[in-house]
UniProtKB/TrEMBL annotation:
Keywords: ATP-binding, Nucleotide-binding. The keyword Nucleotide-binding applies. One of its GO terms (molecular function) is ATP binding. It comes from Paenibacillus alginolyticus. The keyword Nucleotide-binding applies. Pfam families: AAA_21. It comes from the Bacteria. This is ATP-binding protein. Residues 50-360 form the ATPase AAA-type core domain.
Length: 435
């Protein structure tokens, strides 16, 4: 369960971005959107969903891209480039694409994430020296790295391992006594690598592989981040040639959505190929789904298993352009499932960006669930804020029951841009002598 994500100097977010999934104070209403989780003797609340608005190129996707980049860095365990380039988020594999392109001062790139899993509150912070934009030859280094469990500092490192308190994680530590821990700390210090994360290397190997396994599994299996609508797909893990794999749950949903064939299934034409989605008419007749079904149907079938995974595992699903090519009624129903105590048993979260104003609805989302991003035209810097930041009083106050959609389109909340293409058309007609 995600509580907070932060980043700084990530692309257009030169100033610190704080993306909070913690309910804003004093906000009431739509209590089904608030999860409650107890860790030790403390209670924590989180939002079940968030929707992000803003004009094109404002930085909405950069929020999702930053989350995805941190996820990949953690899972790799280092800040060297990945061997395989990411098509959906190149910055996750080519870190020279991360720094703000206008910064020439080698400003550090910062990440921070706070989440709850397996009964523990984890907080992990990274500060990285990645050089300047497009400098792929720069010698990168981890400037600082800190790790907290249940709000207690476990370790911090800079150039050296500055703090290490194993007693905080005694249940998951492989250390027998303090003497053994001191020897291991010295060994870890001598093997500290400036390009590697201590959490995923020395700490994992010497102090607590079990705890790091929980964190690794959360990033890999429960932090489901998709930076592009066309990348929203998780292929089944099978490669048996000429065998159709049909998921009954997904197909039942596809029938409700409006599939045109008898069924949809995955087929591996050759053992070395990835499974591909096919429309199934009978045992002998199948065709590529993309040539027979609508784009919206194919996208829904690619998306729905990921929605199911989040619901079954209590994952945090983060999607760019959630509403692309899918009817609003289907999207509304998925959102209502995430908001339902009856169906969202494991406290899964849904975060997405959109241009569709239909979600600007006080009966659907709380003010703290509605997020905005806008970019300054002069500095090209993005800023992020929530509808709840406006408060409830004064000229720009936002009250429960307000017409959020109408107010957004009259620019009461910002994060909207008036676009007029007529001067371009007039110039074109003029150049061609059209009167």
């Amino acid at each position: 369960m995600l509580l907070e994500f932060r980043t700084k100097n990530f692309k257009s977010f030169q100033d610190e971005l704080v993306f909070s999934m913690t309910p804003a104070p004093k906000q009431k209403g739509l209590d089904y959107s608030v999860f409650k989780e107890k860790v030790g003797i403390k209670n924590y609340n989180s939002l079940s969903s968030a929707v992000i608005y803003g004009p094109n190129a404002s930085g909405k996707t950069n929020i999702i891209g930053a989350m995805d980049t941190l996820k990949h860095i953690v899972l790799r365990g280092h800040i060297r480039n990945a061997d395989t380039k990411s098509r959906s988020n190149p910055a996750a594999s080519q870190l020279e694409l991360i720094p703000n392109k206008g910064d020439t001062n080698n400003t550090p790139v910062d990440f921070s994430i706070k989440f709850i899993d397996s009964g523990y509150l984890f907080e992990y912070k990274l500060s990285l020296d990645l050089g300047v934009f497009l400098d792929d030859e720069y010698k990168r280094s981890v400037l600082s790295e800190t790790f907290y469990v249940n709000e207690k500092l476990v370790f911090s490192r800079g150039k050296e391992l500055e703090h290490l308190e194993i007693s905080v994680i005694k249940k998951y530590s492989s250390m027998v006594n303090n003497k053994e821990a001191k020897v291991a700390k010295k060994l870890a210090q001598n093997n500290l690598n400036s390009e590697e994360l201590f959490l995923m290397n020395g700490f994992k190997t010497m102090f607590s592989s079990k705890l790091v396994s929980i964190i690794n599994d959360w990033f890999e299996d429960k932090f489901l981040v998709f930076c592009r609508a066309d990348a929203l797909q998780v292929l089944p893990s099978f490669s048996k040639k000429d065998t159709i794999l049909v998921d009954k749950t997904v197909n039942d949903a596809a029938v409700l959505f409006g599939v045109n064939s008898n069924a949809l299934g995955y087929l591996t034409p050759n053992e070395d190929d990835e499974p591909k989605l096919f429309s199934v008419f009978n045992e002998k007749t199948v065709v590529h789904a993309e040539t027979f079904e609508s784009y919206g149907t194919v996208r829904f079938v690619n998306m729905f298993p990921i929605v199911l995974r989040a619901l079954l595992t209590g994952g945090t699903l983060v999607i760019d352009e959630f509403d692309a090519s899918i009817h609003p009624m289907a999207l509304m129903n998925i959102i209502s499932i995430f908001h339902s105590d009856d169906y969202n048993k494991h406290k899964a979260q849904l975060i997405f960006n959109t241009h569709n104003p239909i979600f600007l609805n006080s009966n659907l989302f709380r003010r703290d669930e509605i997020k905005f991003v806008e970019r300054d035209e002069e500095t090209s810097r993005s800023t992020h804020y929530s509808l709840s930041d406006f408060g409830t009083s004064g000229e720009k106050g936002v009250r429960n029951g307000s017409d959020y959609m109408a107010n957004y389109f009259v620019n009461q909340y910002g994060a909207i841009k008036n676009i007029d293409f007529t001067p371009v058309i007039e110039k074109l007609l003029e150049d061609r002598g059209v009167k």
